[in-house]
Amino acid sequence: YEIALRRWPEEVNAPIRVALFGRTDVPFVSDFVPSEALPLVGAKLQVGDVIEEKPIGEHDCAVVFEARLQTGKTRLQTELVDEQGKCWGAYYVYVKRIGD
Description:
Elements: E1 2-6, E2 40-47, E3 50-55, E4 63-66, E5 76-82, E6 87-88, E7 92-96
Antiparallel strand pairs: 1-4, 1-7, 2-3, 2-5, 5-6
């Protein structure tokens, strides 16, 4: 599976670290509460027994992980981490099946 962690929805296509101010022209995403830029530097994904971490670049809109998962129920947990170690969950997570 390909699992993409985002702060903003795909349709907005905004970098994870930036602030969004008010309205966007994206349907169903038109009333964002104004936000602030966050100095996010890392992303962590845990799905079942799989735990991975990746850095967040200044212009990254998503942090993408690939994981081979077992069939059945599991738990997915995400973290976006700033320079001071403070954590947020990813607001948007996109999961896509790839390959076999």
